[in-house]
Amino acid sequence: MNVQQIVNTVSQKAGLDQATTEKVVGTIFSVLEHEADGTSASSFFARIPGADALARQYDVMSTAPSEGGGFLSSLQGALGGVLGEKAGALINGFAALKASGLSMAQIQKAGETLVQQAETAAGPELTNRVLGSVPSLKSHLGLG
After folding, report:
1. What stretches of 49-103 show up as alpha helix (H) in DSSP?
2. Handedness of CA 43, 116, 85, 33 (dihedral sign)
3. Could you give the CA distance from residue 143 to residue 132 in angstroms, rounded to a whole number?
4. In this predicted model, what pLDDT tens digit does every residue of 28-48 receive, in sequence order?
5. What gap in Å lies between CA 92 and CA 85, rounded to an integer?
């Protein structure tokens, strides 16, 4: 199963359009790429063709300016700097998802479906190991 098949399934099950779903999946993969344990994350991305490219396309740590700027942008920058790259990736990722106009319920449904598809593609043990190394992502997605 490749990343496009995952995007298609998440789009269908979460009721989101293709472009929004691609952003959600890419953003979550980007958070995992920045936060997950290196060896597990490499193995995980190797089992889902195109996942690493999608994660880079929606890189949550890119230096592109935030839309709108203002207080949230300043807070993201400050917290990212204080807490380090890992926390910054999670904060930036969820800010990007919220900025796309999705409700928390939509984000959670998309995340839940993404995890199910990732388990099918990469195997439940590896997927759980990668997600387990980013417990705050699991809780934000309503998974644990």
Report:
1. 51-57, 70-99
2. positive
3. 11
4. 999 999 998 788 999 999 999
5. 10
